[in-house]
Amino acid sequence: MNTSQRGANGRQSGDRRGRDDRRSRDKQNERKDEYLERVVAINRVSKVVQGGRRFSFTALVVVGDGEGTVGVGYGKAKEVPAAIAKGVEEAKKHFFRVPLIQRTIPHPVQGEKAAGVVMLRPASPGTGVIAGGSARAVLECAGVHDVLAKSLGSPNAINVVHATVEALQMLEEPEQVAKRRGKSVEDIAPAALLRARQEAEVSA
Questions:
Q1: How far apart are CA 66 and CA 156, in angstroms?
Q2: Per residue in 84-124, pLDDT tens?
Q3: CATH code of the domain in which 196 resides
Q4: Degrees (nearest 5) of the Cα angle 190, 192, 198?
Q5: Can you give the pTM of this predicted structure?
Q6: Handedness of CA 146, 152, 156, 160 (dihedral sign)
Q7: Overall domain count for the chain
């Protein structure tokens, strides 16, 4: 094999590696785009050590697929981007499913965590997410599009986020609530919500 042939083969091999690397990056970007990410709070913290103070950053992050799966994570690092990245990974480890009827929650619920208290109520289509910034981040990442939310406790963003998560984790399907209370599904859930779910199932 002469020098020109070796050079041509080398260029072809390099081109293939370059294309493979680009495909790999594209796939990674596609996986990233599957999730919604919201940074709720970033704080600088200090630790007293021998010789002075050591500073670092903490980030509270909400991650969800916008279709009923959401999680909250807390990251800590010396730099803000690293703290956010750790928060995202932690949130993905704590994913949980949120039962939804079309675009809203199946029934009213109140979540309490530490000093945070958040009340959630179902809303009719087109209402939107009526909530403060911290609760809104959790609800939007979870895929709730129509809901009324109100904070009844501490306004602290971290407490509100955890209280909202607690409320979402308490949600049940109408069938579960009806069975527990010994009633029919029609007695538990509004007719409009049941009708919306039936329409969604038919269209699916």
A1: 24
A2: 999 999 999 999 999 988 888 988 999 999 899 999 999 98
A3: 3.30.230.10
A4: 110
A5: 0.74
A6: negative
A7: 1
